[in-house]
Amino acid sequence: MLSPEELSRYSRNILLNEVKRSGQERLKNSIVTIVGAGGLGSPALLYLAAAGVGKIRVIDSDTVDTTNLQRQIIYKHSDIGQPKAIAAAKNASSLNPYISVEGIQARISRENASDLLKGSDLVLEGSDNFETKFLINDICIQEKIPYITAGVLRFEGMVMGIRPGEDACFRCIYEESPAPEHVPSCADAGVIGSMAGMIGTIQATESIQFLLNTEDSRSGLFGKILQVDSKSMEFRTIPICKREDCEACSLLIAKKLTV
Ligand SMILES: [Zn+2]
């Protein structure tokens, strides 16, 4: 049930035929886990919190430093030195006290990932490394949790939605994690801060539409990859087919992990 204060707070959502009061209640009853409270996780968390997603968990092991503030807009200057997960949860809660935001200061690993992600209606992956991206992919497929993965570098970004069993997964495209020395990071190569904001905001928009789950609000990026080049402002959406011998989709990776 939504209180009078919540009905007022979310009135611009509720006005939409695709949302109404029932959709807003669905958002309130949703659990979303955000992996990585960085350039992508910051705007995604702010918009999901503002939209009234009832339970949000945010996982990150780092602390806030000066170089983060150019794009990680959930943090304030006064948060420098604080654990990101805790500062992000505190700032999202101060934006919307009618939801629950839990900050989990942990590095996600093969050992703890299932426990940390279990129970989520949706996972947002916005980490800065391929190892975590493959890990989230494998665990979400194994636990049958839909998830939206994204990446950003320099002036470019990508977003992809995956419903396990239905859509092609991250490993269908990339198969194996590239060696870290072959992959530039934002720390090495730079990134436009607002570009991370744009991609994280697309993740949030996709999430809200996915959680509403009505005929009119079908989200557009499941089974597809969106590539954005901000220099030319070209957005390309490409349908992705499952790879027949994908080890994640055929759950071979999960078997390997449990052997
Ligand atoms: Zn796959």
Automatic annotation (TrEMBL):
Signal peptide: none
One GO CC term on file: cytosol
UniProt cross-references to CDD domains, sorted A to Z: ThiF_MoeB_HesA_family (cd00757)
Keywords, in A-Z order: ATP-binding, Nucleotide-binding, Transferase
Top-level taxon: Bacteria
EC number: 2.7.7.80
SUPFAM superfamilies: Activating enzymes of the ubiquitin-like proteins (SSF69572)
Gene Ontology molecular function: any one: sulfotransferase activity
InterPro entries: ThiF/MoeB/HesA, ThiF_NAD_FAD-bd, Ubiquitin-activating_enz
Pfam families, per the entry: ThiF (PF00899)
Domain THIF-type NAD/FAD binding fold span(s) in chain numbering: 10-247
Catalytic reaction equation(s): [molybdopterin-synthase sulfur-carrier protein]-C-terminal Gly-Gly + ATP + H(+) = [molybdopterin-synthase sulfur-carrier protein]-C-terminal Gly-Gly-AMP + diphosphate
Subunit organization: Homodimer. Forms a stable heterotetrameric complex of 2 MoeB and 2 MoaD during adenylation of MoaD.
Free-text function comment from the UniProt entry: Catalyzes the adenylation by ATP of the carboxyl group of the C-terminal glycine of sulfur carrier protein MoaD.
Record family assignment: Belongs to the HesA/MoeB/ThiF family.
Protein name: Molybdopterin-synthase adenylyltransferase
